[in-house]
């Protein structure tokens, strides 16, 4: 009798998480996140991050709304529609609250150019939403949930107490049990879709998960470097 093919019982999420383990370590150890957790992150770096993340979240919410429109399972559609709402109502409001507190109004924010990394990540998600198979789209948005929850929870554990912490609202938002529950839900959706996906789609799901996790690292790194367009010097200012 021929030997049975070895079958992997590892879920898509567990395999994808294991594949990005070194990258996740780099995210946790990035100077931006270390300083964020210690409360020593400079105001200009945090403001840069907030402004870019506001742009990112607007695109991310549209990506999630597209996922809701494309989902065939009504429960999945509800989850993604709700998550699109949360990205704008909770996360973006968190950023606006900080920016208001720093005296930055809508006009100041509008005057900041979208960074190369923010534009690349946002464009990648929106292109994936419109052109990739639905399971690949789910894999692409998964790190946006999961990595932030992982970082938020780790920062909370590393922090002695949040009472006087300058970034406590940020840390509380991403370490909140409600946010963790949304991670569990999107992981379940990804695992269910991967379980019936053909090998090529599953490979594309893994690629999308890895690419989005790379963009997560790059996003924090761009804020740390206060990234600008290297070509900006050759453009005249708008008249
Ligand atoms: C870049 C980025 N990635 C993820 C998240 C969490 N939704 C966020 N606010 N910003």
State the main characteristics.
239 residues, 0% strand, mainly alpha, 11 helices, Heme Oxygenase, Chain A, 75% helix, binds 5-(aminomethyl)-2-methylpyrimidin-4-amine, single chain
Largest sheet descriptor: none
- First-residue to last-residue Cα separation: 78 Å
> What structural category characterises the helix and strand content?
mainly alpha
CATH class: Mainly Alpha
SSE topology string: HHHHHHHHHHH
Helix content: over 70%
As for the number of domains, it is 1
Strand fraction band? under 5%
Q: What number is the mean pLDDT?
A: 94
Shape: globular
- CATH architecture designation: Up-down Bundle
Protein name: Aminopyrimidine aminohydrolase
Domain Thiaminase-2/PQQC: 23-225
GO molecular function: thiaminase activity
InterPro entries: Haem_Oase-like_multi-hlx, Thiaminase-2/PQQC, Thiaminase_II, Thiamine_Salvage_TenA
């Amino acid at each position: 009798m021929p030997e049975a093919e070895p079958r992997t019982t590892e879920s898509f999420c567990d395999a994808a998480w294991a594949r990005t383990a070194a990258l996740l370590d780099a995210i946790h150890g990035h100077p931006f996140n270390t300083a964020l957790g210690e409360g020593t992150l400079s105001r200009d770096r945090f403001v840069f991050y907030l402004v870019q993340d506001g742009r990112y979240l607007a695109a991310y919410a549209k990506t999630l709304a597209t996922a809701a429109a494309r989902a065939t399972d009504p429960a999945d559609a509800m989850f993604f529609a709700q998550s699109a709402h949360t990205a704008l109502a909770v996360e973006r409001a968190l950023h606006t609250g900080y920016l208001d507190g720093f005296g930055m109004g809508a006009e100041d924010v509008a005057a900041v150019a979208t960074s190369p990394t923010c534009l690349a990540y946002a464009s990648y998600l929106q292109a994936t939403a419109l052109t990739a198979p639905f399971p690949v789209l789910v894999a692409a948005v998964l790190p946006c949930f999961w990595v932030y929850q992982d970082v938020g929870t780790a920062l909370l554990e590393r922090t002695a107490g949040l009472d006087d912490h300058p970034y406590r609202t940020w840390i509380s938002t991403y370490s909140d049990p409600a946010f963790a529950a949304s991670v569990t839900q999107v992981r379940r959706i990804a695992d269910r879709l991967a379980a019936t996906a053909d090998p090529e789609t599953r490979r594309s799901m893994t690629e999308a998960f890895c690419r989005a996790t790379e963009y997560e690292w790059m996003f924090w790194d761009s804020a740390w470097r206060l990234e600008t367009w290297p070509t900006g010097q050759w453009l005249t200012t708008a008249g």
